[in-house]
């Protein structure tokens, strides 16, 4: 029981970081119709910015601010220089151009920071484990990540439903030409949305980098999972991204924790370990294929 | 048509480069990992190797170094190039067992010598051994076996075991269990390259183990130990030296202090060759040497000792000279078993802090004169 | 001979000239590189059939490349060990004969493509891109966990498979095999695209509704093209395994899918010799820039970006435009 509740928390925490990544991706796709593989690079950039600033100043808070602003700035820059030219192109060209951006970003980061991973030290206020009701010990920082994820989800919901920017975003999703005709500066709106998505990715990178490691290529596995999330949730839907992120996070954590022991009941331990581990890592892709075969437009997607 | 001229020009350039083989001396091809997450290991092997050549003043040993990016197919292609174009006599440098398995059998089949400064997969120690293959580091299981032996002497009865889901990971747990006599509280395989261990730490917490044996080389070990320290679980850790080299310890910091690990080498091993090596390495590169650096250094010295006795063109004589292992190893006593793998002592170390630097100090011997479990299967 | 045909022939001839030139100059490694280019180009020709002519942006073609490779590796390693590949439902012996392995690799790949294609083609657009990626990831993780065939470490088989009358270990002879297969695939692809089937396929890409109105089911067309495309990529995977005498899950990774796509785009989408030019330039850059800087992939990225933004027709598009001006 204790094991199960700890793994549920792990799944939630993992899901929240996926949500931070997926929110930006799905927003950019919903508003601009762009498929952006370089989103993982912005995640990596945020992590490096946080590691570098926190290392230089000794302040984790400054590191977080740096990650948000560096990723947002890089996002805006990339949007103006490259991404803008891709909106009218087909998906193939978008995939390719942003794949090219990954190469540039990754090798650039390797050039600046080297190949050896960087490691952050947790701020003392957030380090260590806390005792939860029910007697479960759980790392405080991971709880904080769950909190940040919920806060961002609420913030995004308020932003989209209550603010002027949100109205424009929704209008842009519905009918791009009309928004432009109404006198909204569409170029600035797009840059702002892209920078917002980038900032969230940067924040996710900084948080994950703090408990794991900051290294070149860290964005790629997360990027693929974020795509899995938005595809399951329905591309363009923030709500879908949130639900799907938690679904994927929980599936992954519980699958990894429970499958080997489940198989061990019917077969010999080492074989069960092998099959359980294999199936555990395939599980989310099976989930995604299943969802798409059942609902080709994702859980909350509009019909394509 | 223009593009074709450029292409032909390139061929001519490559062809000219290929003709320039040295008339005498030895040509060494070093395939090692110089980029990506595993770069630290390759850089240490290379630096240790070069340091030995420099100290010996060996100007007639030409070393060609190429980066395998830790990818087996890249390593195979580099080996093809070194054998076909550069016409090297000896290959060395590979860090990872899977790359060694992809390269070594084909290279020795083509009559090249291979000196392994790090990887020692069981297949190359047993039935797949070869007279031209020499391992200067260890057979892969050795340090894990030593960890198992140490667990017994420390009185552990219920170990939780953790390793990545790849062949070297399963070998690690097999090696540990070969000597460890207690019960298994759990046996978990993680994804290779995994960076989040929350799920596994949860399983350790729920397992009721009295010790945790883990084999997570490189960045995986750093992430695991940091997250383990944050989790509030305080079951003692044991592991092989791969998660406790100089680079890794500085990154893990306090979370590693006091952890016992097993190694065939440490910087405070008391012998003349080692003292000189540690001093020279620090003077040359401005950092403490790791065990990988010591292995690179020993590999080069083994090569030099053979070169002093025989010409590499006379394969039988050169091989006999290598078998004699007539060089001053940084590990003190060093000799080859019948399958060209080391027979050596394996020690227990503890992570300590010296000033601002995290490092290891020797605390005892785990296994004496250990060869390996596969030597009997080797028929040369 | 039309202008495009002349260009296609010239590109292919350039590759052959490089290999033979290198052989004459005594640079066997360059022959090996040309072989690698020919094999990767073959994979590109396969992908081009789905992507360039069929408009199916598959981000998971590495799965077929990898399956072709694994079939080769599995058969060759069983032949070396003298054990059967399987004894159920009937015994299949290992094989070290290229002519026996190739059809096997293509059949297995095609079967996988029928399943993956039939499920993926239920979706379109970004969903199709992502669901093909998901299937590739599934197989990738499966291969990593498949300990019997090396798992993450991959599978070595040391001796290149044999071809009657040839010494496959001689670089130039293995190049010749690869180049002939490449030429056959290009000819096949030219035939297919000009056939009734190919025209309908291209029409389905351009205007799905109209094709449906004329009584053709685009699903069947697209699935057929997807399977043909996969079988060619599987053959390329089999050759690539023989080139390295080694297969590993890296052949199945999404990076591989991306790279095959890069060959196609770099050379020119929907152009017969596009993948040949693309793969050739890719390997040339890898060798030239790789020597200049270990960060050569950043330069590759910039080049790729420039091609996508300013020369959507790829290298051959640029060349064709240049020729027209002359």
TrEMBL record, chain B:
SUPFAM superfamilies referenced in this protein's UniProt entry, alphabetically: Periplasmic binding protein-like I (SSF53822)
Gene3D superfamilies in alphabetical order: 3.40.50.2300
Domain Leucine-binding protein: 26-355
Cross-referenced Pfam families: Peripla_BP_6
Stored InterPro entries: BCAA_transport, Leu-bd, Peripla_BP_I
Signal peptide: 1-23
Top-level taxon: Bacteria
PANTHER family tied to this protein: LEUCINE-SPECIFIC-BINDING PROTEIN, PERIPLASMIC BINDING PROTEIN OF ABC TRANSPORTER FOR NATURAL AMINO ACIDS
Family, per entry: Belongs to the leucine-binding protein family.
Name of the protein described by the UniProt record: ABC transporter substrate-binding protein
Organism: Albidovulum marisflavi
TrEMBL record, chain C:
Membrane topology listed for this record: Multi-pass membrane protein
One Pfam assignment: BPD_transp_2
Transmembrane stretches, start-end: 37-55, 62-81, 101-119, 126-149, 169-192, 219-240, 260-285, 297-320
Domain of life (superkingdom): Bacteria
UniProt entry tagged with the keyword Transmembrane: yes
Record bears the keyword Transmembrane helix: yes
UniProt keyword annotations, A-Z: Cell membrane, Membrane, Transmembrane, Transmembrane helix
Compartment(s): Cell membrane
InterPro entries to which the protein is assigned, alphabetical: ABC_transp_permease (IPR001851), LivM-like (IPR043428)
UniProt-recorded name of the protein: Branched-chain amino acid ABC transporter permease
Protein species of origin: Albidovulum marisflavi
């Amino acid at each position: 029981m204790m094991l199960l509740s700890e793994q549920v928390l792990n799944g939630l925490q993992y899901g929240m970081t996926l949500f931070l990544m997926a929110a930006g991706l799905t927003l950019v796709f919903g508003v601009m119709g762009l498929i952006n593989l370089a989103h993982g690079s912005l995640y990596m950039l945020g992590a490096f910015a946080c590691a570098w600033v926190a290392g230089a100043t000794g302040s984790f808070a400054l590191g977080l601010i740096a990650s948000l602003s560096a990723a947002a700035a890089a996002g805006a820059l990339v949007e103006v220089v490259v991404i803008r030219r891709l909106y009218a192109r087909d998906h193939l060209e978008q995939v390719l151009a942003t794949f090219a951006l990954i190469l540039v970003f990754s090798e650039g980061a390797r050039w600046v920071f080297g190949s050896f991973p960087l490691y952050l030290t947790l701020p003392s206020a957030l380090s260590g484990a806390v005792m939860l009701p029910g007697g479960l010990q759980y790392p405080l920082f991971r709880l904080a990540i769950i909190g940040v994820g919920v806060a961002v989800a609420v913030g995004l919901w308020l932003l989209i439903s209550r603010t002027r920017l949100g109205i424009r975003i929704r209008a842009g999703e519905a009918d791009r030409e009309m928004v432009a005709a109404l006198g909204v500066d569409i170029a600035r709106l797009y840059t702002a949305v892209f920078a917002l998505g980038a900032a969230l990715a940067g924040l996710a990178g900084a948080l994950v980098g703090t408990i794991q490691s900051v290294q070149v290529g860290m964005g790629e596995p997360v990027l693929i999972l974020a795509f899995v999330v938005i595809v399951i949730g329905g591309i363009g839907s923030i709500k879908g991204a949130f639900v799907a992120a938690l679904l994927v996070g929980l599936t992954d954590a519980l699958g990894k924790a429970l499958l080997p022991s489940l198989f061990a009941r019917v077969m010999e331990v080492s074989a069960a370990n092998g099959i359980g581990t294999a199936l555990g890592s395939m599980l989310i892709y099976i989930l995604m294929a299943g969802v798409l075969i059942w609902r080709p437009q994702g859980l909350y997607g509009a019909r394509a | 048509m223009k593009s074709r001229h450029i292409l032909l020009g390139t061929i001519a350039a490559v062809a000219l480069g290929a003709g320039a083989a040295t008339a005498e001396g030895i040509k060494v091809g070093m395939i090692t990992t110089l980029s990506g997450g595993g770069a630290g290991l390759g850089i240490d092997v290379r630096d240790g190797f070069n340091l030995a050549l420099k100290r010996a003043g060996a100007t007639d040993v030409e070393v060609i170094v190429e980066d395998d990016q830790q990818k087996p197919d890249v390593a195979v292609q580099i080996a093809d190039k070194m054998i076909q174009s550069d016409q090297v006599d000896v290959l060395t440098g590979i860090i990872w067992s899977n790359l060694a398995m992809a390269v070594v059998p084909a290279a020795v089949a083509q009559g090249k010598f291979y000196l392994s400064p790090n990887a020692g997969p069981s297949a190359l120690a047993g039935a797949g051994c070869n007279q031209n293959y020499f391992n200067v580091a260890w057979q892969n299981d050795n340090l894990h076996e030593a960890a198992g032996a140490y667990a017994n002497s420390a009185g552990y009865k219920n170990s939780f075991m953790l390793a990545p889901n790849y062949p070297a990971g399963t070998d690690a747990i097999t090696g540990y269990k070969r000597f460890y006599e207690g019960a298994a509280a759990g046996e978990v395989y993680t994804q290779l390259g995994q960076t989040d261990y929350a799920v596994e730490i949860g399983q350790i917490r729920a397992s009721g183990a009295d010790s945790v044996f883990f084999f997570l080389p490189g960045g995986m070990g750093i992430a695991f130990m940091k997250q383990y320290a944050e989790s509030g679980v305080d079951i003692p850790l044991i592991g092989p030296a791969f998660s406790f080299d100089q680079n890794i310890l500085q990154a893990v910091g306090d979370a590693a202090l006091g952890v016992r690990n097993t190694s065939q080498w440490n910087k405070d091993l008391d012998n003349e060759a080692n003292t000189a090596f540690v001093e020279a390495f620090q003077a040359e590169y401005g950092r403490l040497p790791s065990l990988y650096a010591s292995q690179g250094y020993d590999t080069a010295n083994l090569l030099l000792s053979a070169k002093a006795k025989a010409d590499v063109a006379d394969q039988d004589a050169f091989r006999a000279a290598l078998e004699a292992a007539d060089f001053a190893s940084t590990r003190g006593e060093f000799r080859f078993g019948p399958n060209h793998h080391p027979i050596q002592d394996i020690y227990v170390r503890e992570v300590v802090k010296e000033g601002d630097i995290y490092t290891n100090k020797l605390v005892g011997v785990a296994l004496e004169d250990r060869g390996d479990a596969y030597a009997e299967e080797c028929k040369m | 001979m039309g202008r495009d045909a002349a260009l296609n022939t010239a590109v292919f001839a350039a590759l052959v000239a490089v290999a033979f030139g290198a052989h004459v100059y005594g640079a066997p490694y360059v022959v090996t590189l040309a072989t690698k280019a020919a094999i990767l180009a073959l994979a590109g020709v396969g992908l081009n059939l789905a992507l360039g002519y069929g408009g199916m942006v598959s981000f998971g073609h590495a799965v077929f490349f990898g399956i072709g490779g694994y079939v080769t590796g599995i058969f060759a390693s069983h032949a070396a060990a003298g054990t059967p590949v399987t004894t159920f439902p009937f015994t299949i012996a290992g094989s070290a004969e290229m002519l026996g392995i190739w059809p096997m690799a293509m059949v297995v790949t095609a079967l996988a493509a029928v399943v993956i294609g039939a499920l993926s083609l239920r979706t379109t657009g970004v969903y199709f891109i992502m669901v093909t990626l998901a299937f590739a990831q599934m197989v990738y993780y499966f291969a990593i966990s498949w300990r019997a065939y090396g798992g993450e470490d991959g599978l070595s088989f040391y001796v290149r498979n044999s071809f009657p009358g040839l010494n496959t270990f001689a670089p130039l002879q293995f190049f010749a095999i690869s180049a002939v297969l490449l030429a056959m695939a290009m000819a096949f692809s030219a035939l297919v695209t000009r056939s009734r089937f190919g025209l309908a396929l291209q029409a389905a890409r351009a205007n799905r509704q109209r094709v449906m109105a004329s009584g053709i089911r685009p699903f069947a067309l697209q699935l057929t093209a997807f399977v043909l495309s996969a079988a060619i990529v599987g053959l390329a995977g089999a050759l690539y395994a023989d080139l390295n005498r080694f297969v590993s899950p890296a052949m199945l990774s999404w990076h591989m899918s991306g790279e095959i796509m890069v060959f196609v785009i770099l050379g020119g989408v929907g152009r017969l010799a596009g993948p040949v030019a693309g793969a050739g330039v890719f390997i040339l850059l890898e060798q030239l820039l790789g020597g200049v800087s270990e960060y050569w992939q950043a330069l590759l990225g910039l080049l790729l970006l420039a091609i996508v933004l300013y020369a959507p027709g790829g290298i051959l598009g640029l060349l064709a435009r240049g020729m027209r001006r002359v």
